[in-house]
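Structural biology now treats backbone shape like a language. To illustrate, our science desk offers a sequence and the tokens encoding its fold:
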Amino acid sequence: MAPSPGSILLSVTGFDPAVWRDEIERAAPGRTVVTEPDGPVDASIHYAVVWKQRPGILNRLPNLKAIFSIGAGVDHIFADPDVPDVPIVRVVADDLTERMSEYVVWQVLDHHRKGPRYRRQQAEKIWHEDRMQPAARDVTVGILGLGVLGLDAARKLAALGFEVAGWSRTAKKIEGVATFAGDDGLDGFLAISDIVVCLLPLTPKTKGILSKPLFAKMKRRGPLGPAVLINAGRGDLQNEADILAALENGWLGAASLDVFQAEPLPETSPLWTHPRVTITPHAAATSVPAALIPPMIAQIESHERGEPLTNLVDRDAGY
């Protein structure tokens, strides 16, 4: 008689656990799904599916084989100082990638085609066509972060006719994309980018990167005026006081922000009412259980057949 498969711990904050539990049970009908370990030590749990898990909960699982994040980032996992030394798997799913690319393309096109200006004109009943409309080929969109999400967005923007540049920690070669890497490449990347899209992971090295020193190096004069910032990565990548200052002193022309240092964004934040800021409520790429759970279960099943896990997090790099 074959041994029963190990249990799966579901530990999520900010999501309805019942929806995720139902999807796991649907995709893996032979497994037990629990939301709490059984006692101070639970040897029956072999896998964990998490988002901002309760600190210390994973350290109670001596037979844990892998941790799966239900979001694109994994910084929430490392916020727990007691994360055990087992493989951590980043979620990579077409649905999540496509949703992020939709958001990036939407925001790029909105700024490119002067959406914020025309919305202000509509509110004031002003009929005025801005005839200084550059073509996509005259605008360079720079993407900070060339992982799965950044690469897909780059390809879709290039297909629309934009010039596309990308910056990453290590050198990459991508057809049709001007690539820059490392500290030495950042200045050159910023110098040519009319719109800067941030899709970086949050690590100790990237925390606060969207701040005064970076804004000071961004393009001042281009087809859209001062460069535009779009951040759909993590809130702690940005310094919001510096963003407001850069908008006021002309270092930034506009900003679209989907993530914030404190969420929900406090009602007192001046970002809400700034005329050149577009705010979305961390909605760029929603994690949908039906799209994300089946690839996780497939990985678990292949791992138990002796195959290696994929999309593993580099603990030293933090993503």
